[in-house]
Amino acid sequence: MSLQAAQAALARRDFVGARRAAAAVLLAFPNDAAASQILGIVALELGELDLAKQHLRRSDAAAPGQPHTLNALGVLCRRSGKLDDARRLFARAGERGSIDGWRNLGALESNAGDVSASARAYERAIELNADDAASHAGLAQALELAHQVDRAREHASRAIALEPSNETAALTLANLCLREGN
User: What is the CA radius of gyration of the chain?
Assistant: First the structure.
């Protein structure tokens, strides 16, 4: 088994195959950060939070500060109710180039009712990739909640142009129309 086999299995959401392949890699290379990360993500996906924590911490110890590991640790903290830790980890992941880190922070802040912090996180995601429909949609939603109608419409329209089936952007545009009485 190889790391590539574990990554391919994870990509197809074959958690049994990903776990088996990553475990085989760790038998041969006990400090392999990527294999530990895959095992952590599999455990996270399966709701095995304690096991996910163990593997993700092992991955971070083997290769400190990797953005995908930090983001996964943030997801783990969010699911465990440790929102301040999740915020810190998502921001660190974003600062290291993970668009998922910024998007996850934006969603967390939106769910917490802090539309300003949510908008800032989505803006940071857009700085990493100006063509990311999900970030434009998240920003549009935050801006609509902050009553910044013109900017909300601009980002929702951009999200729809990039991804015509983006439901968040479509709902934001619908809310804007309702707000204006159209």
Answer: 18
Helix (H, G, I), strand (E, B) or coil at 67: helix
Over the stretch 148-181, which tens digit does the pLDDT of each residue have?
Answer: 999 999 999 999 999 999 999 999 999 999 987 7
Q: What is the pTM (predicted TM-score) of this model?
A: 0.90
Contacts of 60 (CB under 8 A, 6+ apart): 33, 66, 69, 70, 73
Phi-psi category of residue 114: left, alpha or beta, with phi > 0 → left and psi -120 to 50 → alpha: beta
Return the half-sphere exposure (C-beta side, CA atoms, 13 A cut-off) of residue 174. 6
Where are any strands of DSSP class E within 12-167? none
Instruction: Return the amino acid letter for 101.
Output: G
Q: Which residues contact 169 (CB under 8 A, 6 or more apart)?
A: 133, 136, 137, 140, 155, 156, 157, 159, 160, 163
Question: Could you report the per-residue pLDDT of 115-141, keeping only the tens digit for each?
Answer: 999 999 999 999 999 999 999 999 999
> Of all residues in the chain, what percent carry a pLDDT higher than 70?
99
d(CA 44, CA 39): 9
Q: Do 62 and 32 touch, CB atoms closer than 8 A?
A: yes
Consecutive H or E run containing 96? none
Token reading at 82: 């440790």
